[in-house]
Amino acid sequence: MTAEHHAGGAGAKPVDVRDPHLTRFDIVKEGLRRDDIEIVTYESQFHGQNSKAEKRVVRNIALLFLISGAATLAFLGFYIWWPWEFELGHTLSDYYTPILGISLGIGLLALGFAILAWAKKLLPHELSIQQRHGDPSSDSDRLIAGQTIIYMADELGVQRRPLLKGAIALGMAPLGLAAAAPLVGGLIENPHKGEHPMMYTTGFHPSHNDGKPVRLTREDGSPIRPEDVSTGGQMTVFPGIPHGATNQHADSPTLLIHLRSDDATVTRAAADADPRNRGSMWGDYVAYSKICTHAGCPASLYEQQTNRLLCPCHQSQFLITDNAQPIFGPATRRLPMLPLTVDAEGFFVAASDFKDTVGPDFWERP
Amino acid sequence: MKRRKMDLAEAPKTFAKGVDDRFQAATPLRGLLNKVFPDHWSFLLGEIALFSFIVLLLTGVFLTLFFDPSMKEVQYDGDYLALRGTWMSAAYESSLNLSFEVRGGLFMRQMHHWAALLFMASIVVHMARIFFTGAFRKPREVNWVIGILLFLLGFFAGFTGYSLPDDGLSGTGLRIASAIMLTLPVIGTWLSASIFGGEFPGELIIGRFYIAHVLLIPGILLALIAVHLGLIFKQKHTQWPGPMRTNENVVGERMFPRYAMKQGGFFMAVFGVIALLAGLFQINPIWLFGPYRAAEVSSASQPDWYVMFMDGLVRLMPNWQIYIGNYSIPPMFWPAVVGLGALFTLPMAYPWLEARKLKDKRTHHLLQRPRDNPERVGIGMMAFTFFMVATLSGANDVIADKFHISLNAMTWAGRIGLLLLPPLAYYISVRICLGLQQHDREVLAHGVETGIIKRLPNGQFVEVHQPLGPVDEHGHPIPLEYAGWVVPKKMNRLGALAPAVKGFFYPVEKPAEAPVSPAVEAIKREEIKSGR
C-alpha cells in the first residue's frame, strides 16, 4: 500500500500562530499539522448546546461521582469504627473485610464509571489520522553509524596490536571471575560433605543418638510400644532425638503400620525376598518412610482396604504389602523401609537408618 | 525603581516559559498531546495487567511493613485461638498477625493475592490477543519476547510470593520445588543444597525468597514493563484494517484528553474489581493450613492457577526413569524442567518461525483477523488445549472427588487427552477459520441474505440478496475484494432497521429522521420488520 496524503495533515498550509484572528482550535490544528495528524471528524455527541440529552448525561455523571464519594467516605468510616479485632465465633468483626471490600469496590467502580462516562458520552467524537513514519534510517545514516563504530575500533587498534588482544583477555577475565566468585561462591553448599552426608541419612541414624539406636516417637516425643498401634492402624512417627519432629529432620517422618496378620504374612514374604528389606519388619509391624520418592510430599493417605499409600500431591500410589513398590502415578521408586525392633524397655527403635535413600530421586543416588 | 507586582494570571505562563527555557519541553509535549491511538476493546487487555501490577506494588509495600521473613521457631500467642501454643516459624506467625491483628491487614493481603491472580490472567488473555491477531509480527517481535519474559517473571514472582507465609500449603510447594531442582542431571543436588543453604528446608529459604520477591523480581519486572510500554509508544500501536486505515497510518483519537481519561477510568474500575474480590472472596486462608510440617499435607493441595499446568504435567508424566550407568534422570525432569523450558522458548521463537515459513519480511502494522491465518489459529488453539488439559489435570484429584470419578481414570484421561485433544483442536479450529473465510467471500460475491423469498414465474423459490456494491447489467452483484475486515452479514448492519430511540423509560429526544436509501422504499422496510 502506498502512503496517502491527507488534506489537513501534511497537505494543509501552515498558518502563523501569532495571528490574532485565529481561534484556539485553529492553533490546535496547526499543532496537529506539524505532527502530521489530520482530524477527519470532530463532532459533539449532542444536537446543540445544553440539549435535554446532554443535561441528562451530565446529571448521571455527577450522580456517579457523588456515589463514589459517599462509598469512599463509608469505607473510611467502616475502617475506623467497625469492630475489626478478631474474636472467635460469629461476631461483627467477621464482616470487617467484606464491608471494606464492598465500600471501597463501589467507590472505585463508581469513580471509574464516572470518568469513563465523561470521556465516552460527553467529549466530542473524533477520528484522527496520524502518519506512522516507521521508516528505517536512511542508507547514508546507516553507513555513517557503521563506519563510525568501525573507525572507533580502528582507533583502539586492537586488530593491529595482537599483544593487546591477548593481554585484554588475560587481564580482564580474572576481574570478571572475581566479581562473580563471592556472589556464587558464598551460596554453594556441598550436599555430600561430612561422614554422614545429609542426602543419605535421616534422624534415625544412630549418629544422632551417640551411636545408640534411635527410638520411634510421637510428635510430642513420647516413645511407642507395639500395643499402642491397633491392628490395621497406622501412626506417623519421628526419630526420638532433640528436634526430631521438627523441620530440621524433614526427611525423617515415617509411617508405622500394624498390619492384619494375613497381610503381614504377604508383606514379610515380599520383604524377605528382597536383600535390603530382609528382616526389617517386627512382628506384624512395618515402617515406611513417609516422604514420597517422587516429589517429597508426605505420602500420607493410607487406604486400609487395598493396603495402598497415596501421595496427595501427584497421586503416586504404593503397595504396602509389596515393599511399598509404586503401582500407579509418576513415582518410580519404592518407599524405603525402616528396620524395626524393640528395645529392652519394650519401645520401638530403629535397628539402623533407612537402607534406601529417602526422598525425591536425584542424579547420583546410589 | 518600582517593585514589580506579581501577576497571578501570568504565573502559569511564566512557569511554563521557565520550564521550556531549561528543558525544551514544548515540542515533545506537543507530540505527546497529539499522539493518536487506535481504539478497540481488545487493546485494553494488557492494561489490566499493568493496573494489577500497580495495585500489587501498592499493597505489597504495605505487607512488607508487617512481614518478618525469618524461619526462627516461635510459639504462637496471638488472637487466633486455634493455633495458640503451636510452634511455627516467625514468617508464618507474622503472616497470621498481619491477617488478624493489623487493621485492614487481611483485606490488603487478599487484595495483593487477587491482584496477582488477575495480573497473570490478564497477561495470558492479552498474549492470546497478540498471538491470534498477528500483532507479534515484524517489527514487534522483541516486544513479544519481552511479554513472554514478563509472564515467566510473574510466574516466579507468584511462586516466591505464596511461599513466603510458610504455611502448610506453601511449604509443600517449596518441597516440590526442591525436588524439581534435584531432578537436574549432574548439578541437581548441588543446586538444591545451594539454594536452600543445605538440606531442605533449612533456615534460609524464606529470607532468600523474600529478597527475590520484594526486590529482585519486581525490579526486573518494572524495568521490562517500562521497555514494553516504551516500545509500544515508539513503534505506535497496531490497528485493525478498515476504512482509511493503512499500514502507514494510525486511525483513532488523540491521546488527550479522551483516550487518557478512558484509561484512568478503566484503572479505577480494575482497582474496584480487585477491591470487591478481596473483600468478598476468601483467598489463601493460611490459618486453616497450619504451619508447614514435613509430615503433614492436606488433600487437594493445589498451587495458584498459573502454576497448575506444571503440577498437572508432573501428575500425568508416566514413571519412566532413565538410567545411565550408575546415574539416573528422574521422570519429573521432563515435565518440570524440559516442559517448562519448552513452553517458554518455543513461543519466544514463534514470530521468526512464522516469518520464515511464510517468507515474510515485510513490516506489519495492520492486524489480521484470526480467520485469515487458520494455521496460526490452529497452532494457538493446540497450545491452549495442551495448557488447559495440563491445568485441569493439576486439579484432577478435586475433580475426581467432586464428580465421583476414579482418580486413576482421571490421570489416564489426562494422559490421553494431552496427546489427542491438541491435534483435534488444531483440526477443528482450522476448519472453523476456513468456513468463516468462505462465508465472508460468499457475502462479498452475492450480497447479504435479506430473508425475503421470491417466487419466480416458473414456480421456483429464490432468496433475494442485497448486494454490497454495484451490480452489473443483469442485476448481479460485481464481486468485491476482501479487505481484511468485518463483512456485514445482516440487513440491520446495512441500516435496514429504524434508528434506536434514546432514553430508558421515555424518549429524551425526538429520533433523528432515518436515512432512507433511494433504492430501498419505505414499504420494503416494513416488510423486513414483519418478516422477522
UniProtKB/TrEMBL annotation, chain A:
Compartment(s) of residence: Cell membrane
Main subcellular location of this protein, as a coarse class: membrane
Domain of life: Bacteria
Gene Ontology, cellular component aspect: plasma membrane
Domain Rieske: 283-349
CDD domains the record matches: Rieske
Spans traversing the lipid bilayer: 61-84, 96-119, 167-188
Keywords, in A-Z order: 2Fe-2S, Cell membrane, Disulfide bond, Electron transport, Iron, Iron-sulfur, Membrane, Metal-binding, Oxidoreductase, Respiratory chain, Transmembrane, Transmembrane helix, Transport
The family this protein is said to belong to: Belongs to the Rieske iron-sulfur protein family.
Function: Iron-sulfur subunit of the cytochrome bc1 complex, an essential component of the respiratory electron transport chain required for ATP synthesis. The bc1 complex catalyzes the oxidation of menaquinol and the reduction of cytochrome c in the respiratory chain. The bc1 complex operates through a Q-cycle mechanism that couples electron transfer to generation of the proton gradient that drives ATP synthesis.
Protein name, per record: Cytochrome bc1 complex Rieske iron-sulfur subunit
Species of origin: Actinoplanes aureus
UniProtKB/TrEMBL annotation, chain B:
Any one of the GO BP annotations: respiratory electron transport chain
GO molecular function: metal ion binding; oxidoreductase activity; quinol-cytochrome-c reductase activity
Pfam families, alphabetized: Cytochrom_B_N_2
Domain of life from the UniProt record: Bacteria
Transmembrane segments: 41-67, 113-132, 144-164, 209-233, 264-283, 332-353, 374-392, 412-434
Broad enzyme group: translocase
Cofactors (names): heme
Catalytic activity: a quinol + 2 Fe(III)-[cytochrome c](out) = a quinone + 2 Fe(II)-[cytochrome c](out) + 2 H(+)(out)
Domain Cytochrome b/b6 N-terminal region profile: 15-241
GO cellular component, one term: plasma membrane
Signal sequence, renumbered to the chain: none
Keyword vocabulary terms for this entry: Cell membrane, Electron transport, Heme, Iron, Membrane, Metal-binding, Respiratory chain, Translocase, Transmembrane, Transmembrane helix, Transport
Record's keyword annotation contains tRNA-binding: no
InterPro entries (UniProt xref): Cyt_b/b6_N (IPR005797), Cytb/b6-like_sf (IPR027387), Di-haem_cyt_TM (IPR016174)
Enzyme Commission identifier(s): 7.1.1.8
Compartment(s): Cell membrane
Main location: membrane
Keyword Ribosomal protein: no
Membrane association type: Multi-pass membrane protein
Protein's name in the database: Cytochrome bc1 complex cytochrome b subunit
Originating organism: Actinoplanes aureus
